[in-house]
Amino acid sequence: MGGIRKSIENLMSAVSFAEEGDFETARELMKGDRRVLLAVRKGHMDPKTFRYAVNACKRISASLDVLYLSSPEGKDPVLAQCISELTGKEITYRLVRESGCLKQAIIDYTNTERGVLFVVTESAENLDTECKGKGTGLSAAWQNLRCPLVVVADGV
Q: How confident is the model at residue 155 (pLDDT cuts 50, 70, 90)?
């Protein structure tokens, strides 16, 4: 019931802003919490995959979450370049740094963030790298992923 109440409140607020001529604020309120998750590992960030996720966000009026798996040390110049491309565009984004298994990180993230519409990643092989528990528990959780998984390329 709480979700329905919030939707009605957002709708009524959007109507009020639209009546006053503030159409951009009304549009933002109607958009809700729609997110696309780009899941990549350090050293496997392909600008084409990034642009695919950004273009999808533009088409469906969604925000971008970048789930980036890396060790705490070091910087990734490709990631920095891709994130800098978002400045000046009308896409809000979040950068979430994790370590460990990409597949498990995706499952955990989509289980906690309800607004994720789909996950974009590069290579199916990269999903299993660094995964210690490749057994039935992780596979069963993968089958119950709450959103579609889009594999864009074979990876770098």
A: very low
C-beta of residue 35 within 8 angstroms of C-beta of residue 62: yes
Q: What is the pLDDT of residues 104-126, one digit of tens each?
A: 899 999 988 888 999 999 877 66
Could you report how far apart the first and last alpha carbons of the chain are, in Å?
45
pLDDT score of 138: 56
Between helices 2-19 and 23-31, what is the axis angle to 10°?
170
Distance in angstroms (rounded) separating the CA atoms of residues 108 and 53: 20
User: How does DSSP assign 30-46, residue by residue?
Assistant: HH-S-EEEEEEETT---
Amino acid identity at 131: C
